[in-house]
């Protein structure tokens, strides 16, 4: 494919200019299938990772809950552990939203 452009110079005569040749190729059906399979495999691996992260997060919550259940007052370390869990929850939610948006596209 290339483009040719002409001007409308009535006095000196019209002139043309040709662009460089551009070659466009559509991917083959096999290439599209391979790309789709690779994308699917990547998505499945990512989902498995997120499930593992969620399971670890649930274990951490249970462990912290057992530690704090009999305490009347939280010390600095307990408060820090709670903040860390809250941040992990936010990070997990963000990553799940990103994964959800990837799957819907």
Summarize this structure as a short list of keywords or feature phrases.
single chain, 105 residues, mainly alpha, two-stranded antiparallel sheet, 2 strands, 66% helix
Describe the structure in your own words:
The chain has two helices and two strands, in the order ββαα. It has helices spanning 29-68, 76-104; strands at 4-6, 16-18. The longest helix is centred in the middle third of the chain and has 40 residues, at 29-68. The protein is elongated and about 95 Å long.
Topology readout:
Layout: E1 4-6, E2 16-18, H1 29-68, H2 76-104
Antiparallel strand pairs: 1-2
Helix pairs in contact: 1-2
Strand order of the largest sheet: 1-2
What share of residues are in beta strands? Answer: 5-15%
| C-alpha termini separation | 31 Å
Strand tally: 2
Shape: elongated
Parts with pLDDT < 50 across at least 5 consecutive residues = none
Major sheet details: 2 strands, antiparallel
H and E order:
EEHH
Whole-number radius of gyration? Answer: 30 Å
Number of helices: 2
Helical residue percent band? 55-70%
The averaged pLDDT comes out at 89
Structural class: mainly alpha
